[in-house]
Amino acid sequence: MQRRWLGNHSLEVSSIGLGCWGMSHAYGPADEKESLATLSSALDMGINFFDTADVYGDGHNECLIAKALRHHRKDVVIATKFGFVGDEHGKVSVCGRPDYVITACEKSLQRLGIETIDLYYLHRRDPDVPIEETVGAMADLVVSGKVRYIGLSEVSAETLLRAHKIHPVTALQSEHSLWHRDVEKTLLPRCRELNVSLIPYCPLGRGYLTGTVKSLADLAEGDYRRGIPRFKNDAMARNQQLVERLKRLSRQSGHTPAQLSLAWLLAKSPSIVPIPGMKRRRYLKENAAAAGIQLSQALMDELDALGRQVSGERHNAQNLLFVDQ
Ligand SMILES: NC(=O)c1ccc[n+]([C@@H]2O[C@H](COP(=O)([O-])OP(=O)(O)OC[C@H]3O[C@@H](n4cnc5c(N)ncnc54)[C@H](OP(=O)(O)O)[C@@H]3O)[C@@H](O)[C@H]2O)c1
Questions:
Q1: What three-state secondary structure class fits 52?
Q2: Which position among 3, 187, 299, 325 has the lowest Cβ density within 10 Å, counted as fewest Cβ atoms?
């Protein structure tokens, strides 16, 4: 497995990381035994970059990672996030208050069973708290040794710059894939300018770009994707054209649609490290192999052209409100 540096030569991680969200929540039923086996196999394959968050399964995901990786602390880079909070009625909001940053970090450290978080992200910007205050508290965590490096998720280029002035930001995690390319307009250039790595989340379009999800019938009851406009039946049917073209390129090149999706991201910049979500061992080898694929310029051009017309929003209306524009 190839390696890449995050930020300004801060953290060295496998070129492909592992998104762990689906192991606790979101994409069909969780299976703890299989999740633990997946985490262990990922390590065996040289994947050392594990992505979680306090909100994934309400702490379950961090505990799962602790269970799987506790004997490999020195070999792994653990990234987690804070910021989403729920009230007793289930209403979700974002909190970036400095006192909350400290409390959330303590809780994540306890669940993860570690003394220092390698990369600590603000999951979403709190619109009521200046970013300088939130990042100031994150910087204090670095000083006190609770966190090694800091990151932000789904913020604008302007917010990234303001945050970076307070403390160097090592990584920005945002949605980026063949069917969602907004970050390429202003964020990717800003990341290059500031030496911030881009960590694309949902690099496989929540599974859609792999060609295995064609209609709502392919998704379990309660699957998170059922609430996303892009996964409504009409939009999914229209977006099949994109997947069909991706499948054609896949047949011609000898790589799977998932591999093309990941190799295309890796080719965009040497500081991009995608974190495909996998809750089963089934796709590990295939996705890990994408790190070694070199795409020709002609194939890059064809892939670039794919996502020009995508139907449906990528988040539901509520979650779009949390995205910093
Ligand atoms: N910062 C944020 O706000 C944010 C938001 C969303 C996600 N994330 C992070 O990003 C990670 C990745 O995103 P994601 O998991 O939402 O979406 P994703 O990586 O685009 O897609 C995950 C889905 O693709 C399936 N899959 C993986 N490899 C495949 C292959 N080769 N062939 C067919 N299907 C394949 C997975 O199946 P199985 O589940 O069956 O293995 C899963 O259903 C998450 O796990 C999480 O850590 C962050």
A1: coil
A2: 325
Give the chain's radius of gyration (CA, Å).
19
Q: Tell me: pLDDT of 316 over 90.
A: no
Tell me if residue 224 is catalytic: no
Q: Name every residue whose Cβ is closer than 8 Å to that of residue 279 and which is 6 or more positions away in sequence.
A: 20, 22, 23, 27, 28, 30, 31, 34, 35, 38
Pocket test for ligand 1, best of 152, 201, 293 (most atoms within 8 A of CB): 201
Q: How far, CA to CA in Å, does 272 sit from each of 52, 147, 191?
A: 18, 22, 10
Of 213, 204, 279, 230, the closest CA to residue 29 belongs to 279
Distance, CA of 135 to CA of 121 (rounded, Å): 10
Predicted confidence (pLDDT) per residue in 92-138, tens digit: 999 999 999 999 999 999 999 999 999 999 999 999 999 999 999 99
- Spell out where 31-146 has E strands: 49-51, 77-82, 84-86, 92-94, 117-122
| Residue in the structure block whose two tokens are 């990717």 | 188
Residue closest to 151 by CA, chosen among 178, 179, 171: 171
- Distance in angstroms (rounded) separating the CA atoms of residues 307 and 277: 21
Report pTM.
0.96
Compute the distance between CA of residue 74 and CA of residue 142 in angstroms, rounded to an integer: 18
Residue nearest to atom 11 of ligand 1 (CA): 19
- Cα–Cα distance, 172 to 121 (Å, whole number): 8
Per-residue confidence band for 233, with pLDDT thresholds at 50, 70 and 90: confident
The Cα 51–Cα 201 span in angstroms is: 10
Q: Which domains does the chain possess?
A: 3-207+258-294 (3.20.20.100)
Percent of the chain with pLDDT over 70: 100
Around ligand 1, the residues with Cβ closer than 6 Å are 19-22, 27, 51, 123, 153-154, 173, 201-207, 210, 212, 258, 275-280, 283, 286-287
